[in-house]
Every structure is written in structure tokens, then in C-alpha cells.
What we know:
With 284 residues, this protein is of the alpha/beta class. The protein has helices at residues 2-22, 60-69, 90-100, 111-118, 120-123, 126-136, 178-182, 202-208, and strands spanning 26-35, 42-47, 73-76, 105-107, 145-149, 154-159, 191-196, 212-215, 224-225, 229-230, 245-249, 252-256, 273-282. The longest helix is centred in the N-terminal third of the chain and has 21 residues, at 2-22.
Amino acid sequence: MQILWVLIACFILGMTAVMIYDSNRFRKVTYELESHKIKKDFRFLFLSDLHNKQYGAMNEKLLAAIDACHPEAILIGGDILTATPGKEVAPAAEFVSVLAGKYPLYYANGNHEQRLELYPETYGEMGVEFERLLSEAGIHRLVNERTEDEACGVEIVGCQIDRQFYKRFQKVSMPGDYLQTVLPEKTPGMYTVLLAHNPDYFERYREWGADLVLSGHVHGGVMRLPFFGGVIGTNFRLFPKYDGGLFREDGATMIVSRGLGAHTIPLRIWNPAELVEIVIRKTE
């Protein structure tokens, strides 16, 4: 019996060490894609779900890793901050502003940025203040809007879906024509990157016409198990289908970041945070 308790204690200590280690580090992952639609190779970084996490003072470690990649652009998939009443928004705004001063930056909202704006009775002036700070840095968020990188032949569309599609414990069905009512029409002939925070609706993003969908939200499933993948999503559904990594369906590609931070379930086990680098190479 004494040996059993020793083994249990060792297991708990080991799991705690893994949790602390994985919850306070990030790794760079790289995906390489090909397309005949682009004009030249396009190398960029995709950031999602930082949730106010700090890697060193003023996020110096994360910023240094970003600079070391020499990206042509930064694409942000949302949830750079966490919607917590009374929480300071300045650190998240300052981090994004530093990036915008160095690189072309395209920012789409996640559900946390969206909540700040939808519920001022809960969050007070946090949404207004965050928007003010971003505007002062020259940052315009893509809220169901599009922009172009003409040199690469790429259009970038920021997708913000209704709050009903973020319900916990269940996936709400999205009507087949919903995205057509909220998103601009894609540009024929251009390679379309859709920044869509919630990966649950990959089928609808593909039907709308996205070539590449960039999502996050699920945090890699919090804990990852061999053969099973992510264990639980941020909506508290077990073993989410799109937990992290690259997925392909009917000619469309989706890359789901495991995120850079955490909230609600503020830990990671065998699931380090990710700085995602993507290279789209031109083919004939």
C-alpha cells in the first residue's frame, strides 16, 4: 500500500511539473502550402488566443521570437485579451501596437473582443478603450470586412459570427446562407484567407469560398492524449474535431492554432502554446 501511495504522489508531482512547464512556454510550428492563385511566396505569422499571457516583461520573449521569423505580415485571429470585467486592456493593445509598428498587421476579433463591444453593461468602457488604443496605433480590425495584399495576390477577410455560435456544451447549426449575409463577396481569382476564430464551422467557411481558414479558440483541447488528441474545448465539449493543426476538406485548408495563452481552464498538459508560421508558395 505504501508503494501505491508513493506511485500516486510521483504521478501527481509529474503531472504538476508538466502542467507548469507547458503552461509557460510556446513553440514555433510551421506549415507550408501551395497555390497557383498567389503572385509570389507569402510568409506570415498567425497569432491567436494570447489571452493577456506575458512571456517575459512586456512579452519580450514572444516579440523576439516573432522578429526572428522575419514575417512579411502578422495575422491575428482574435482573443489577444480576455474579457474580464475591470481587467486592463492596455497590455494587449500595447503588444499589438508594437507589432503594427514593424509589420503589416491584420486583426480579426475573437469572441472575447466581441463580448467587450456587445455587453458594455458588464465590461464598462473596456471595449471603447481597447478600440481607442488600437486606433491610435493605426490598427483597424477586420469585422466582416476584407482587405488585400496586392503584391502577393492575397485577400484577407475577417469573420465575426453571432454569439449564438459560441454556446457551450453544444454546436448550434449555422444556416447554409448565413455567411453570405454577413461577409463580403470574395474576389474572383484571388487567394482568400479567412480569419474565423471558431473552427467548428469549417464546412460553412469552405462553402463560402475560403481557400485558407485560420482559426483558434479551442486552445488545443487543453490536454492532449496520444491517439485521441485534444481532450476538451473551450466550449466544454469533449474531444473536439478541430483541436489544432492542419485540416483539408474539398479543396479548402484550415489551420487551427493551439493558441498562445489560456483562460477559463487556465492550464495546458502535453499541449504547449503555439506561434504559427505559414508559408504559401506560388505554383504554376
